[in-house]
Amino acid sequence: MGSERQEGVLLIPGLPDEVAMDCLARVPYRFHCGLRSVCRGWRDLLGSPLFYSQRRKTGKGEALVCLVQALRAGPRRRGRKKNAARAPPCYGLSIYNSTLGEWHRLSFPPASGLAVPLFAQCAAVQASGKIVLMGGWDPTSFDSVSDVYVIDLVTGRGRRGAPMTPARSFFACAVVGPLVYVAGGHDNQKNALRTAAVYDTAADEWRPLPPMADERDECQGVALAGEFWVVSGYGTDSQGRFDPAVECYDPAAGRWRKEEGLWTAGDGLGGAVVPPRSSCFVLEKLCHLYCNEDRREMREYEETERKWKVVGETPATLRSIPCVRRSPAAADC
């Protein structure tokens, strides 16, 4: 419950610590920032993975979905010309609490130096309650950036992390265990990449991984069965022609394997494996969600049979899925 807590000091006077932790674990997530400021013992407890494990055990855990969204520009100033240069677009981190059906946005003061890049990728490290924002474009120059920001979901505060090398955007990312894996995307010259790396938020360190077999720009990343899957993408010389294969990195073995033909011509994708208004994600299996005018369905991939199965239909009111397309991060708090 926090190694720094003083011996003999109870979390709540008059109650055994086990009972006190059970009481605190039932407090809704939105009040956790205030709980941390009560005393050092509570601060240490709320910074411990054991606390959030207890919340899930008691059924009080809350499911959060985090995504990068554009912030609305302020009202036009009176007298300003319509063709005057506009300020660069700004982006923020929005959080949806699906347990309570509530939205809120994390705002970062200018002094913090945190500026969410355009098309930044977002990954949730559940073991530590952290959100990692990585890469994307500079909103002014549109160059790929190497920026990394680590956001504490409890305090809402962020810090700069060790930068990615190289700078990349439109890459695949996913969390396997406590580590964040990235691969593919493109660099500042719009060259598709086959390089990959892994980030340790606790140590604030990047470690290079063996490169993939192929370049993969605009690929998508998922964590499945303890592996990092990089789905589809295209090479520098085949822009827009998505590859129907997936490359899977096994952290235990330290190597990649390639699965050919994850999509086939019979899937009706017209050569675009991950077309607009379509995205991949993982529930218990690899899923593919369509939101096109002529096709609205969700499919699951049966790995043993190596084929897709339609399991549901997307609602007609769902016109696009930018939240999935822009790599949301899911966390339990």
TrEMBL record:
SUPFAM superfamilies with a match to the protein in the record: F-box domain (SSF81383), Kelch motif (SSF117281)
Domain F-box: 15-55
Gene3D superfamilies in the cross-refs: 1.20.1280.50, Kelch-type beta propeller
GO process terms (BP): negative regulation of cytokinin-activated signaling pathway; regulation of phenylpropanoid metabolic process
CDD domains tied to this protein: F-box_AtAFR-like
GO cellular component, one term: cytosol
InterPro entries: F-box-like_dom_sf, F-box_dom, Kelch-typ_b-propeller, Kelch_1, KMD1-4
Protein's name according to its UniProt entry: F-box domain-containing protein
